[in-house]
């Protein structure tokens, strides 16, 4: 019994490690619609950020359809490569309910924002679907 259980656990671990990244359409285009690159925003007020996406669909975490995923907003950090699980922390905000906009609060200073799409399990696509990184200043 123990040998069968160990073999099952080993096979499961190997299949998880060998999982292929979710393919993305080659013409997927992800962008930040607001704020604009170089925008100066007021401190002490929530900053509205809205997400734009073309040639892919948006669905909540756990919903697996071809060419569909959900948004992650990266603040002051770089995007992970393809096939990587996106962390969930103050620099990697998850929108697993399928949201297409949010409000954030940032301290005064320069900040970078970037979007990256994750599949049904928060893993980046292959090729990675990400917006260009923008810089905003909070004054």
From TrEMBL:
Residues 49-139 form the DUF4399 domain. The keyword Signal applies. Keywords: Signal. Residues 1-18 form the signal peptide. This is DUF4399 domain-containing protein. It comes from Massilia cellulosiltytica. The lineage of its organism: Bacteria, Pseudomonadati, Pseudomonadota, Betaproteobacteria, Burkholderiales.
